[in-house]
Structures are given as C-alpha cells and as structure tokens.
Amino acid sequence: MIEIPNGFFYADPEEWKEKIEPGYRMEYFYREMRRRTGYLMNGDEPEGGEWNYDDQNRESLPKNHPVPEIPQFEPDEVTCEVIEMVEEYFPDHFGEVDSFPYAVTRGDAVALLDDFIEKRLDEFGPYEDALKSGDYKLFHSQLSVYMNNGLLLPKEVCEKALQAYENGNARLNSVEGFIRQILGWREYIRIYYETMMPEVREANHFGFTEKLPEMYWTGKTRMRCMSESIKPVISEGYSHHIQRLMILSNFSNLTETDPRELNRWFWFAYIDAYEWVELPNVLGMSTFADGGVLASKPYVSSGNYINKMSDYCKNCEYSVTKKTGENACPFNYLYWNFVDKQRDTFNDSSRVNFMVNMFDNKKSDEQKEAIYKSSEEFLEGLSRETE
Ligand SMILES: Cc1cc2nc3c(=O)[nH]c(=O)nc-3n(C[C@H](O)[C@H](O)[C@H](O)COP(=O)(O)OP(=O)(O)OC[C@H]3O[C@@H](n4cnc5c(N)ncnc54)[C@H](O)[C@@H]3O)c2cc1C
Ligand code: SF4
Predict the structure, then answer these.
(1) Does residue 308 lie within any of the structural domains?
(2) In sequence order, what are the residues at sequence separation of 6 or more whose Cβ sits closer than 8 angstroms to the Cβ of residue 79?
(3) What's the CATH code of the domain at 18?
(4) Contact at 8 Å (CB) between 41 and 47?
C-alpha cells in the first residue's frame, strides 16, 4: 500500500498512539498541539492566560436572538442525477433527498467557510451548547463534512479563524473554542481510532443488549427534544454536537440500548459520518462503551440540563419538573435508574461518584420505588428498532 501525505490532519498518529489510555485526556494533547502550531500563544503562554474558555461557552440562546442563515446551493446537474439514482434504488431508505443544501465544489466550500468566519464565528463560543426548536445549526459551522471529504483543510479553517481574532472580528472564547474542536478533538479522535481499532468496534462496557428505539428511524415521539434532534438528521443528515451528545446519545444510554446499535445508526444517518470520527465519538465519548479510555464518565443527564440549555421542554408533552409518574420527563427517572444500576462505574469516577451517594442518601424509599416503577413502565413500552 502506498500512502500519500496530505493535509487532512495535523498530527501523525504513530507519534501519539502509545499515549492513548485511560487518564490521558484530550486537553493534554490539545495544549501540546497549541505549543507546536503556535496558535493563540504568546511565547509559552496561552493567549489571554487560559488554555480553555469553556466556562464562557455555556449560554442558552436568548429569546429572539438573531441567528444568520447558512447559505444553501442549488444542486448542480451531477447532484441532481445522484439524487434521482438514490430515489430510484433506495426509495425506502432512511433519510430524505428533497433538500440537499450542501456544497459539492471546492469554491462553494470555501464560500461557506468565509461566511461562517464572517457571520457566525464570533458567537460560536457563547452558544456552542445551546439548543433551539426549529434551528439545528445555530452558530455551528457545518464544516465537518468538507474537512472530512477534503474540500477544506483543517489548517486553512483554523488559520482563517485565527485571522478573524487577530483582526478583532471574533472574540477569544469563540476562536479558542472553535480551534479546540478541530486542533484538539478532531485530531485526538483520529489518533484514538488508529490506536483502538479494530477491538473497539465491539466495545460494550455496560453490556447493554436492547435494540435502538424506533423513534431514531422515524422521528416520531412525544419527546420534543428527541423529535427536534432527529428531524434534521432525516432531512439533511445533520444535527449539531450537543444534540448528538446530550440528547441522542444520552437517551440511548438511559434506555440501555446496545451502543453498537447506536453506532450503526450514526454511521447510516449523518452526512459527515466517516468511521474514524463517528465511531470514537459514539463508542468512546458518548456511550462509555470503551470503559473510560476516551471519556472520564458516562454521558447521562436528567431533563434539567436539557431544560436549561433549550426551549424544548416548554413545548413538550412531558413535564420536565415532574420527577416520576404519568407525563414526567423520562430523562428524570431514567437518569436515577441508570445511576443506581451502573453504580460500580459511577463509583469508579471521582467526577460522578457523588451521584450514587445522592441516590442512596437523599432519595426516600418511596422516591426510589417510583423511579424504578416509572423506568420499568417506560422501558417496557418503548418500541425498539426492527430495521
Ligand atoms: C455521538 C456523536 C457522533 C458524532 N459523529 C461524527 C461524525 O460522524 N463525523 C464528524 O465529523 N463528527 C462527528 N461528531 C463530532 C461533532 O459532533 C461533529 O463534528 C460536529 O457536530 C459537526 O458539526 P459542525 O461542523 O457544525 O461542528 P462545529 O460545532 O462547528 O465544530 C467545528 C469542527 O470541529 C470538529 N469537531 C467538533 N467536535 C468534534 C468531535 N467530537 N470529534 C471530531 N471532530 C469534532 C469538526 O470538524 C467540526 O466541523 C460526533 C459527535 C457525537 C457526540
Ligand atoms: S421535558 Fe424531558 S422529554 Fe420533554 S423536551 Fe424536556 S427533556 Fe425532553
């Protein structure tokens, strides 16, 4: 096999592979990459004095806050031909082809990059974790697909973001946050993949065996957060990071779905899904299927955080303030059910072991019984994927 060097990545996995093990976190790798590239560095010191400005990047979106549209392109002749073929050969396949808003040429991909840098990068940071009904892009770049297929190179993307900071057109917490996703996460994930394959493909730390809930294929559910996160995947093969992590993966974990089923769905469903990046995000970051090599804790939460970061709960048939019983938000009781059942894993993590104490010592016996009952009923009534 001949390998042709290219600019798809910054780092050579061979140099880093041996570091990938529990305890070696992305943050260490990222700092070293900042030093090597000199991005946002003043000598040996990070720009502004901090390596990471995430504490400024957790705002929910204020009501009526304007969000610039991402330009869309009319499909060209070749794209139309491919759309017709897909319709003919895969009429019942998951997803729709009615709208294909993506660039298919280098020129259009560069135009999208420039548009992002000019109109959305500055507010990328503060609203990075925000969720809003009817808008699944917000201030995200939607550039992963072009970096993954080679229409854009990560270096030009990061360097245009840096330029915007230097010109005073984008704030530091946004530019640092954006560069960290690419120079940090994207690179680290790829090294993880090169190191952990092929064994990690079958990883299933919790031993879950349930099929994927049917709603992932149809988008039909009374849970507003789930329908809002699945609909754009069906129409455009995209939803943003927090929808993927905090809603879709969280629910899969709480419903004890086999992580390999979820992995298969993400692989099928997203326009930017290449195994080297999709699989580590699902089996490492989101489901803890690798037992804690990539992430330091299982990614699960109750409805509180979803309510804090979104307007979904206001428009949901379930009540986020109700903890158990009819119409209570399923995330609420499923979360505690998960903590109780997976207590060994929680106890092993200094970041979440206090949750087991809270369950044991702060919940009354009646509350615990109600959690078990609501969870059992919900899980029994959940239709599972039969694809
Ligand atoms: C369960 C799950 C599955 C995912 N599957 C994929 C996938 O198939 N393909 C894919 O490219 N990304 C995947 N990601 C990572 C991330 O969600 C997407 O890269 C991002 O949402 C793409 O949208 P964007 O371009 O608007 O990103 P932005 O929010 O604008 O971020 C900028 C860029 O940073 C990079 N980036 C951000 N987070 C990550 C990450 N965790 N891993 C690698 N790169 C990252 C991407 O290149 C992205 O374009 C997944 C994340 C999760 C939690
Ligand atoms: S109430 Fe629960 S199910 Fe409904 S949107 Fe909020 S978090 Fe999702």
Answers:
(1) yes
(2) 100, 104
(3) 1.25.40.80
(4) yes
d(CA 175, CA 122): 7
pLDDT tens for each residue of the chain, 387 residues long: 777 778 899 999 999 988 888 888 899 999 999 999 999 999 999 999 999 999 999 999 999 999 999 999 989 999 999 999 999 999 988 999 888 999 999 999 999 999 999 999 999 999 999 999 999 999 999 999 999 999 999 999 999 999 999 999 999 999 999 999 999 999 999 999 999 999 999 999 999 999 999 999 999 999 999 999 999 999 999 999 999 999 999 999 999 999 999 999 999 999 999 999 999 999 999 999 999 999 988 899 999 999 999 999 999 999 999 999 999 999 999 999 999 999 999 888 888 889 999 999 999 999 999 999 999 999 999 998 655
Same domain, 299 and 177: no
Give the number of the atom of ligand 2 that is nearest the alpha carbon of residue 316. Answer: 4
Do 77 and 225 reside in the same domain of the chain?
Answer: no
Residues 330 and 237 placed together within one structural domain of the fold: yes
Atom in ligand 1 nearest the alpha carbon of residue 116:
30
DSSP 61: P
Instruction: Kindly state whether residue 297 falls inside one of the protein's structural domains.
Output: yes
| Protein residue whose Cα sits closest to atom 8 of ligand 2 | 225
DSSP assignment string, 315-355: G-SSBTT--SSTTB-HHHHHHHHHHHHTHHHHHT-TTTHHH
Q: How far is the CA of 241 from the centre of ligand 1 (A)?
A: 6
Q: What is the CATH number of the domain that holds 302?
A: 1.10.579.10
Asked if residue 282 is part of any domain, the answer here is: yes
Mark whether 111 and 62 lie in a shared domain.
yes
Q: Name the residue with the closest Cα to ligand 2, atom 3.
A: 223
Tokens of 34: 């900042």
Integer Cα distance of 177 and 168 in angstroms: 16
Indicate which ligand has the atom closest to the C-alpha of 312. Answer: 2
Total-model pTM: 0.96
How many domains would you assign to the chain?
A: 2
What residues make up the domain containing 167? 13-196
> H or E segment at 34?
helix 26-37
Q: Which residue among 142, 161, 196 closes a domain?
A: 196
On whether both 20 and 152 belong to a single domain, the answer is yes
Question: Which of 223, 231, 301, 317 maximizes ligand 2 atoms within 8 Å of its Cβ, making it the mutation to test the pocket?
Answer: 223
CA of 212 to the centre of ligand 2 (A): 19
Ligand 1 contacts (CB < 6 A) are 140-144, 147-148, 178, 181-182, 185-186, 189, 240-241, 244-245, 249, 266, 270, 272-273, 277-278, 281-282, 285-286
- Answer with the one of 196, 229, 258 that is the final residue of a domain: 196
